[in-house]
Amino acid sequence: MYKFSSASKTMATAVCALMLALPVTLLAACSGTELKPFSQYSEYAVKAADDGDPGDAKWASYLKSHFQKRATDRDCIIAGKAQDDSQLQLVVDLDGSMDSDYEVAVAPHEIRLKARSTEAMLWLQYQFMSSASADDGRFLSADLPPAVVDCRSDAKGSFAFEHRSIYTPTNTNADMMPILGVGNVDFDWGLWGHNLRKVFTDGIPAEATAMVNGKRDAGQFCFSSEALYRAYEQFVIDQYGDGSDGVTTRFAVVPNDNRLVCQCAACKAKGNTPQSATSAVTALIERLARRFPHQMFFTSAYSTTRKAPTHRLPDNVGVMVSAIDMPMAPETSQAKGHEGLEAQVKAWQKCCSRVYVWDYMRNFDDYLTPYPCLHHMQSRLRFYRDLGVKGVFLNGSGYDYVPFDDVQTYVLAQLLINPDVDIEACTSRYFASAYPKTGQLLGDYYRKIEQQAQRATLPFYGGIDEALSTWLDARQFGEFFSSMDRASKQADEAERSKLNRLLTALAFTRLEIMRSQQQAPSRQQIDAMTSLLAHHTAFEDMANYRESDGDIDGYLKQWHESYPWLDSAGNLLHGASIDAKPKADAHLLSDGKQGFATDYHLGWLITSAPVQRFSVSSGLPSAAVFHVSLLHAPQWHIFAPSSIEVVQGGAVKGKAIIATPTDSRRVRVSISASSLQPGVKTEVIITQTATAEGRKTMALDEIEITNRQ
After folding, report:
1. Of the candidates 18, 13, 16, 132, which has an alpha carbon nearest to the alpha carbon of residue 68?
2. Are 465 and 599 in contact (CB under 8 A)?
3. Distance of alpha carbon 242 from alpha carbon 291, whole angstroms
4. How far is the C-alpha of 586 from the C-alpha of 359, rounded, in Å?
5. pTM of the entire predicted model
6. Closest listed residue to residue 651, CA positions, set 628, 671, 624, 681
7. Distances from the Cα of 170 to the Cαs of 184, 362, 401, in angstroms?
8. CA 561, CA 541: separation in Å to the nearest integer?
9. Which of 336, 358, 392, 488 could disulfide-link to 499, CB 3.0 to 4.6 Å?
10. What pLDDT is attached to residue 489?
11. From CA 122, how far away is CA 272, in angstroms rounded?
């Protein structure tokens, strides 16, 4: 046994005390790296990481100024070094040499905001302001989207895509775009899409139009035209300059949206074929890229420019690859066209440094029925990221209102930054922030339809039947609508205004669900919803329910002019079985319901057969009138037929020759037939028009047979 002298005992006691204290000291050091709740700091002290760095100084000043604007007590934001742990030190560090786009580094009572670019720094600062104001009641942040970065702990990341653009009504505030971290092509491109005509200030000269079938066609451009080059050159100079000031702008060089290709001698010499304009378009874009080396020029891999060039393009040339041929499947790897899109991306990556994807995120035939696409879009964005795509443009409804567009735009902005974010967490965060009273109700319903949609491929152009067969449960939707209506009356003015807008839009879905039913609802139910939808005029962004020919007032007019449920009294064919050759949904022609002329999806039998035959076996009177209801809508490639014949036993019993209508509308044709024999099969033979060119279809919604008076 060791014996200690008094001195040794004193030392031993000190050592023991030190050893006992050591865990406490380490614990204190560890806990010191944690921050107090933001609300417990008396002040926020903002400083530049390097006072001698103009970038750091500028962004430190920006953070102080804009954070102060949100403070109810401006004195709680100060400049300089924190004096003690009652103050939270904020350090701003703009560092172009970082290996990530942004970083949050937390030290005891200090948060360092680091970013590689000014774009990332602005986004990160608002992430911090949103995060802090959620905990600290001294700041106003109702206009800020909820933060996705937790600024109370270390975080680091890079944006998945260098270019992120969302074309939705929610994303039309230029001040909010950098805060969300996304752009909008209408705001941050010099020229985009099929808008080449805009480079001409005094009309398009004939020499700039395409040579098709030996003559000039104003529907397309000649991309070898010197007039087109000079007009585009002047447009860039006049509107945006040459980019030498350090401000780079993106410009599109894209043909009009049709299959026309210029076949003039110059374009053919460059390599144009009747199907491909890639060669001439590429030559023009290369010329512009050399003229303006500080600007960016993009073509599109779509339609006549789908094929990639075989040579390397300048570094400031890129391409937008269209994803329209890849269906919106729950898993992109299961989508029918994903192999083709992947091959196209890889082909363009061989010839240009910037490959972007032009993707689609709406049902363009129905903006007002909820379209739960977030999980589908997450799968697509992961696919693009893994392919090495550098930018994504999400084509939404533009400026037209869409239910749940606000939460979808918010979540999609996060997915464009990081496709692996938790969608459920993002939606919950948004609904709680934007809808304090009804957020739980809205969030619960939205999550349900997202979950139900995960088993379905969503249509880019579809009707209510497709929604009802997959993600939209009519009873569940009706209960949600009624609950939201009741809850809206308890919300404050700002929230109630948003809910009234949502309820007005969803009245369209209620009406479409009614229209899909075989039995007519009460007139009172219909009148309630048409009256509610008629209030769309109170909202300037709610004039249309679809991309084209979707005027809501025109839709409401159809409810008065084409009431879906027909009076079947006297109709000898009502409920009868009809055979079709080629095979078609012939039950639509005897169900006692008619479609709307504003919509080809619901109630219409669509056929592309040059000759469509329908036969009826039930007994008919010796003389009858056959009434055939048709749709003429050239904008949808639907044309009235050239003739309708009633045939029995090989003999024509009645015939109508149909003149092509001059406008889009319903066409009702009546054919008198005589000498009909009871019990003999009767055919109605409808022949497609020969005058229309290109893709042709016919649409029918009802055949009625009445006694001839």
Report:
1. 132
2. no
3. 9
4. 36
5. 0.91
6. 681
7. 10, 14, 8
8. 26
9. 488
10. 95
11. 45
Q: In what order do the strands lie in the sheet with 102-107?
A: 77-79, 43-48, 87-94, 110-115, 102-107, 155-157
pLDDT at 33 (0 to 100): 54
DSSP string, 364-422: TT-SSS----HHHHHHHHHHHHHHT--EEEEE--TTS--TTHHHHHHHHHHHHH-TTS-
Q: How far is CA 697 from CA 125, 326, 406, 578, 669, in A?
A: 55, 23, 37, 20, 18
| Amino acid letter, residue 13 | T
Amino acid at 545: Y
| Structural contact between residues 401 and 505, judged by C-beta atoms closer than 8 angstroms | yes
* Contacts of 563 by beta carbon, 8 Å cutoff, 6+ apart: none
Strand blocks (E) in 294-389: 296-301, 317-322, 354-360
| Pair of tokens at residue 173 | 């505030």
Please report the pLDDT score of residue 686 as a whole number: 97
Ramachandran category for residue 680: left, alpha or beta (phi over 0 → left; psi -120 to 50 → alpha): beta
The percent of residues in the chain predicted with pLDDT above 90, rounded, is: 91
Beta pairing partners, 686: 612, 644
pLDDT-flagged residues of the chain (< 70): 1-33, 618, 709
Residue 597 amino acid letter? A
- Please give the structure tokens belonging to residue 235: 């447009």
Dihedral angle computed from the Cα positions of residues 173, 175, 181 and 185, in that order, rounded to the nearest 10 degrees: 50
SS3 707: strand
What is the per-residue DSSP string for 260-291?
----SHHHHHHT--SS--HHHHHHHHHHHHHH
Buried b (16+ CB within 10 A) or exposed e, 33-42: eebeebeebe
d(CA 660, CA 210): 29
- Residue 690 contacts residue 631 (beta carbons within 8 Å): no
Q: How far apart are CA 584 and CA 605, in angstroms?
A: 7
Gap between the Cα atoms of 702 and 627, Å rounded: 8
Q: Are 639 and 688 in contact (CB under 8 A)?
A: yes
Does residue 185 contact residue 166 with C-beta atoms inside 8 Å?
A: no
DSSP 477-488: HHHHHHHHHHHH
Phi, psi of 548 (to 5 degrees): -135, 145
The gap from C-alpha 671 to its chain's centroid, in whole angstroms, comes to 46
Short-list 367, 377, 369, CA closest to 410: 377
CA angle 122, 87, 64 (to 5 degrees): 30
CB 192 within 8 A of CB 432: no
Looking up tokens 């690859």 gives 321
DSSP classification of residue 203? -
pLDDT tens digit sequence for 153-209: 999 999 999 999 999 999 999 999 999 999 999 999 999 999 999 999 999 999 999
* Number of other residues whose CB lies within 10 A of the CB of residue 386: 12
Report the interhelical angle of 278-291 vs 226-239 (nearest 10°). Answer: 40
CA distance 397 to 370: 13
Contacts of 79 (CB under 8 A, 6+ apart): 45, 46, 47, 60, 61, 64
Grouping H, G, I as helix, E, B as strand and the rest as coil, residue 74 is helix
The strand pairing partners of 328, in sequence order, are: 458
Type of residue at 141: S
How far apart are the C-alpha atoms of 509 and 449, rounded to whole Å? 14
Domains in the chain with CATH codes: 38-158 (3.30.379), 165-453 (3.20.20), 579-707 (2.60.120)
Alpha-carbon span 399 to 544, nearest angstrom: 10
349 and 355 Cβ atoms separated by less than 8 Å:
yes
